[in-house]
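Give me the fold.
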Amino acid sequence: MNVKIDTKEKFCVITPEVNEITANMSDELYKSLSFQLSKPIPHAILNLQSVEKIDDSVLTMIYDMQQKFYNDNHSFVICGISKSILNQLEALELLDTMNVTPSESEAWDIVQMEEIERELLNGFDEN
């Protein structure tokens, strides 16, 4: 599976360059996302703009990965999701608990807001 990785100052944008992500591609996407957690700036945006079809098991893995990012105090936002994939997430009852935006620029904003929130909360915890 072709995956484009674009590293920014505060986060990394991971964009699968395929129109379908099948269950057997799940491991490769998982490795790309997991690798991001080990980087100095581990925040990630998963841009699914090219993806038209995706297996339910892959969506569940993405959900689990997003939870792992947030449990480790890192941001993970998904953007560029097609209407059919949004419907799949809704059917799997995952959409309401995931951080999803229509565009990459909105995802950037969320990552930056969460970074500010973490800095403020850390300062609050020290007092």
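Residues 3-126 form a domain with the Transcription Regulator spoIIAA fold (CATH 3.30.750.24).
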